[in-house]
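Entry:
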Amino acid sequence: MSELFDAVDALVASRAPLPSAPERKRLRTAHGLTLDEVAGALGVRRATVSGWESSKKTVEPRGPEREAYARLLGKLAELYPAPAAPEEPAAPAPASGAGAPDPDRAETVSPRPVPADTTARPVRSSSVSRRAGAREAAPAATPVATPTSGGDARFANGPLAVVDVDTDGQVWAYCTGGLVLEVPARTLAALVEWALTEAKLGQPRLSGPGKDADPLLVLSGTALERYGLPTTLTDEERHAGRIPEGHRAVKQLARAGWKLTKRGLGPWARIYRPAQGAERACVQLCIPSWKALDARHWGHAARLQPAELARVLGLYASRVMTPRGSTAVTGLELMTALHPPTRASQPDADGRRHSERNPGSLGKDPVDPAPCEAPDGHPLLADLPRFHVRGPDEKLFEEAYNWARPMTDAECTLRYLVGIDVNMAFAAGANGLLVGLGVPTHVRNPEFDPKLPGSWLVDLSHVDLSRVKVGKEWAQLDGDLLPSPFTPKGERPEGPAWYATPTIAYAVELGYPVRPREAYVRYESGRYLDGWYQRLRDAYLATMADLGVHTDLAPADFLAAMNAREESDPEQAIVASAIKATVKGGLGKLRERPRGEGWRPGQPWRALSRPTWRPDIRAAVISRTRINLHRKIVKHAAFTGQYPVAILSDCVVYAADGPSPLDFLPYRQGKPLPGGFKLGINPGLVKHEGTQSVLWGEEVRERFDAPDLNLARYIKDGTVTDLDNGE
């Protein structure tokens, strides 16, 4: 009989009405549960749970997930009954940060709120206050393990803290989840010691053989004054990227036995002692007033109050990783964190383990690129004449699109220019990409293998875009209105040139044979960037879901949600911007150029000493991203007869009768063209970039006397500040 009763209970639960979306969220937050925790328990994605709680477009759960979700909500409703309606009007809602924190917004729950006025007395951590011998505190909050700590008690207070000083001179550390700790340290050296021994800050490793993230301390202007540091850098210090080694704060650290890395005490500083065993002995500093948080990527984050800044950086840390520097540096560090270069070997005959290369990683030693992959000035090219300019048959030149053409007479009769932008285009280009892991091998007259990463010298001038294969069928197109997929400027190749594997594979896909003359191939290969892509994708989708942009929105609803996203939560919008910058910046770091350092052509520069200096991987990602875009353009042209008028990186501009992407994208009964452009928030799908009038485009080109001016550069807001020089 019990089995029958269970079946009946399950049947009732599968059809039982669920609470409203706001009530679902109330119940979850009342119990201190995050979206991640609920998603993990139910075996669904975080964005799915967020959709179930969305008031704008509530998505109903189905199947066994609905039954489990209903059971969860029922038990929570027993613990936290809905409050009775008040007899008198409720008091005004508290200011941002003054109410009970929302677990989805703050990533954790603090037993007491953080005051909106940062000069007010924040909550103290009982354990830290007692160690510090502070004056008797009010009833203290007990630090709780946060999602960013992964339940690791060593990092119970999260990955980072924003250090600030109130008007009474008391130093406070604002952590994630609304927790605020009293800081007893009176000197910078003591602050570093406190962060390592008492603060319980840090983040667990992202991969088994990897390393835990060091504590990150973000110093406000008042904290800089307290610890003897300048609140701003001079022009000379800004150019050097650090304060002088003779500064008293640097000397103070040295006297206490602390060291600085080669980049010194700058906007992003690492302070450490030589490690002894597994003991952590390194702290990262972030100094916003020294331009640590680039406004191009972090928006107005540097101007946020301490609690708000802790929330923004904490969200980024929990979804990506604890920042290690700029978004570009962090993007590169994320690759290494997910694929550590070494691991412990199996025990030898004496039971000892040794360090060995971690399979699937780039190893711990740098490798030289192929000569064609080396950028100008590389030591491999030191024997070239001083003013020699390498042509396409000497240099691999895989870059993003910067292409435009004059509009046709028919396009000039239309009213609008509509720009669409590919979401996380370069991340999508990295997904599933097979890249080389080791040294290149030079091969003469090779047979092309699309599964073999490398650089190939081949003549693709015979590929005619007026007749190409689209899928398995040949299609007739107007090749003069299409950019070449083989060059960033969209020009047709005129002879042999070096290309990455995805570019050659696309020529074959279009229906044309290829005969490479030589190649540098890498037989040791793997999908090195898959985990990197997946973590950044999940981070982006979770953040956009918090902004009300979900993966299952209908096209019109998606466009509306995108228009309203930044107004719904400006801080989440900052995190989304930083995640996107992490993708592009991290890939750019794979071919980092000299940055001052007294470098001269032919000499090595600092970045060459990294195993992650891999221009071939960067080239492969850019090649695949450009090819992915061209494939959609060709599919769209074959089906609609419409051609782009401008492309800049991942933005494409079309002439259309209406101002919306829906006025030219071929949706039928809500379904997009298979293999073409599709509106949506997932990486590889597109969003609306901007709309201007055709008259605007013609006037701009006439004003600058530039018929090929790339309008994609200015389509977002229509502002043209200077002539497009292609940079």
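The longest helix spans residues 615-640.
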